[in-house]
Design goal:
The complex is a heterodimer. Chain A is mainly β. Chain A contains no helices and ten strands. Chain A is globular. Chain B has no helices and eleven strands. In chain B, strand 4 and strand 5 form a beta hairpin. Classes of the chains: A mainly beta, B mainly beta.
Chain lengths: ~120, ~110
């Protein structure tokens, strides 16, 4: 059974960093692409970025709003994908979701989300 | 960055049919945008409903269908049920599947 579980959400101050994890079961990270979406409180969904599968080079793409501040990596030893968020801003406050797919594989299974609050 | 537009809200009667649409600021939506539809019920995570215009997932109820209509992606709900009350989001791909953009979502009320 495919499952993705996000963790690492917290309240942080502007300018600080945070790393979210997407722990995967039912498939191996690197065999599929993994994407991150987010949803600010009371607002709609936003695509954050994705990491391609290992056969596709494990390269990444990001939305303009987070380009240069966020990165995504895959860790085969823990079978997880990580979203590293640097220089966080107030408007990064959102529930962050990971989902399998994004490039080379369709979106299908996603997690339940983890809340990131950026506040001074 | 492209802007993806959806109706803000629609209301459908129980058992009725409603069509939601999804447009792109760059022009007509095509199969090359790999249109997706997500359903999000209150307090829940979004879930995939339709991919690649019209392809369903094993968990997609038969009453949902996808199409291209008048240069827009469309999601049709036939035989609406109270359980279908949710926000529905369209997602389109750009730049050779390097970027994805969500629409603002459509709130569906079954009343």
């Amino acid at each position: 059974e495919v499952q993705l579980v996000e963790s690492g959400g917290a309240m942080v101050q502007p300018g600080r960093s945070l790393r979210l994890s997407c722990t995967i079961s039912g498939f191996t990270v690197g065999d599929y692409g993994v994407s991150w979406f987010r949803q600010p409180p009371g607002k709609g969904l936003e695509w954050v970025g994705f990491i391609r599968s290992r056969p596709d080079g494990e390269t990444t793409e990001f939305a303009p709003a987070v380009e240069g501040r966020f990165s995504i990596s895959g860790d085969v030893s823990t079978n997880a994908a990580h979203l590293q968020m640097n220089n966080l801003r107030l408007d990064d406050t959102a529930v962050y979701y990971c989902i399998r797919g994004g490039s080379g594989w369709p979106f299908d299974y996603g997690g339940q989300g983890t809340l990131v609050t950026v506040s001074s | 960055q492209a802007v993806v537009t959806q109706e803000t809200s629609v209301t459908v009667s129980p058992g009725g049919t409603v069509t939601l649409t999804c447009g792109s600021s760059t022009g007509a939506v095509s199969e090359g945008h790999f249109p997706y539809w997500f359903q999000q019920k209150p307090g829940q995570a979004p879930r995939t409903l339709i991919r690649d215009v019209r392809r369903k997932y094993p968990w997609t109820p038969a009453r949902f269908s996808g199409s291209l209509l008048g240069g827009r992606a469309a999601l049709t709900l036939s035989g609406a049920q109270p359980d279908d009350e949710a926000d529905y989001y369209c997602l389109l791909s750009y730049n050779g599947i390097r970027d994805w953009v969500f629409g603002g979502g459509t709130k569906v009320t079954v009343l």
